[in-house]
Structure formats: structure tokens, C-alpha cells
Amino acid sequence: MDVPLPLAPRRVHAFLASLFAGPVLAFIMLVLGGCSNGHSDALWQIVNGHCVPDEDEHGDPAPCVAVDHSNAAGHGWAVLKDRNGPYQYLLIPTARVTGIESELLYSTDAANYFQAAWKARSFVEQKVGHAIPREAMSLAINSRYARSQNQLHIHVDCLKADVRDALQRQKGSIGDTWSAFPEPLVGHRFQVRRIRGADLDAANPFLLLPDSIRQDESERGRHTLVLTGAHFAEGDGFILLDGRASLWPFDAGHGEDLQDHACP
Questions:
Q1: 133 Cβ neighbours under 8 A, 6+ residues apart
Q2: Is residue 242 pLDDT above 50, yes or no?
Q3: Third-level CATH fold of 40-260
Q4: Domain assignments of the chain as residue spans, ordered by start
Q5: What is the pLDDT of residues 1-30, one digit of tens each?
Q6: What is the pTM of this model?
């Protein structure tokens, strides 16, 4: 559910406003500029208006492929086939969560949507017709300024081969704390860290962001997260990339650029 090409100038307009004009004008520009256009609630309307009630009433989550909203804390999620790419899926909360800037993602009892999204990679594998190595799979969340939808959604799809190769080259230098990734990835600069463990049961990537980011809503909205599986000497784990929207060099925070929606 990316911003179509004709809306890209509007997205840039909103981004520039947020940098220079303060929060009030930035909000106005977001409303007028495309991120809050008439279709920005499309995902929420699909999940809340169709997938959840269809699952509850008929045991069929269509048009989603899965719905799990049994958690009493409101940590449910739905999985929807994205219209872009033959294999891409979206993991979407069944609660109202606007995006990466939402404070709901950063409380100590926050839902671990990345954990659910990583498990949802099975839908990509089913679509492709074979298992995909963990280091070839990825999850991505775009920044507030690089999305068209005001409902959190995690893109679940393959990782571009050149990104995978770069991560393999630098894997030995990726540690348990944040550091600058030494190479640009598809033209973007990232901070990087590793996560130990074969799954994300004990690690919520949102909560691994530095305090300076997690405690500032405006700053949170400028970030984009990309996660991929990895093999380290001590066992399976993950590589987590954190990018930031910036004016110069211009970067809207579109971490999804690292994904390959053709998924070879």
C-alpha cells in the first residue's frame, strides 16, 4: 500500500512542512498533501470493516488470509495480501494504530507485531511454493512520510539480493548495540544492530530503538525499520536496520525499498 507515483510530490511537501513549519502546519500539510487523503484509511476499513467481522461471523477472514484478535489486551492482527507484487503480504493490527510514530508501540506491554509478521512469512513461502532462507526474508515499516496509509502495516516479503549480499559482507561487524552500517543500501543510510535468537518472542524491535527516539513522537515518525533473518556464529538471529527521513541528503524513510517484491 505505497504512495502511487502521482502522490509523491505531496508526500515530499508534507515532509518538508514537518521539518520547517512546526507541528501544527505539518499536520495541515499532511492532511492536504496526500498522507491523509481520502484513501488513507483504506487498510483500516478493510481490516475493521471486513476481515474481523467476517472472521467473527463466518469463520472466514476474507479478504484477509488470517485474523487473530483473541488477545484480551487488544494485540490482535490480520494478514492481507498486498496489491503490489505477487508475493507481498501485510501484517496489520486489528486495533487502531496509526504508524511507527504511535505511542501504543512503545509501552512495556506493547504488542509485538514484528513477531507476528515474522511468522506470517509462511504466507509468502506458500505463495512462492518453497521455503525461503531466513536471510532472504524481510519485514519493513516505512516512515510517516513514506506511506499512504494511516494504519500500521508491516510489509512481509523477500529482501533484495544486493542488500542481502551487503549484510553478509558486514555481518561480522554487526553487534548487539546500534552502529552505523558502513555501506548505503539502495541509496539509504542505516543504523544497524543484531538480535539474538531464532525468533522474536523475547525481542520487540520497536522497543530496541534508542530512548531519544522512543520518547519523541515527532522523531519516531521519521524512522523506518527493516528486519531480516541472519545466521551468526552462535546461532540464528536477526539484523535490524533503522533509517531516518532527512532533508539533505533527501530521504523520505522508505525502508521498503530494500525489499524485492518479485521475490525470485
A1: 229
A2: yes
A3: HIT family, subunit A (3.30.428)
A4: 40-260
A5: 443 333 344 454 455 444 443 444 344 334
A6: 0.87
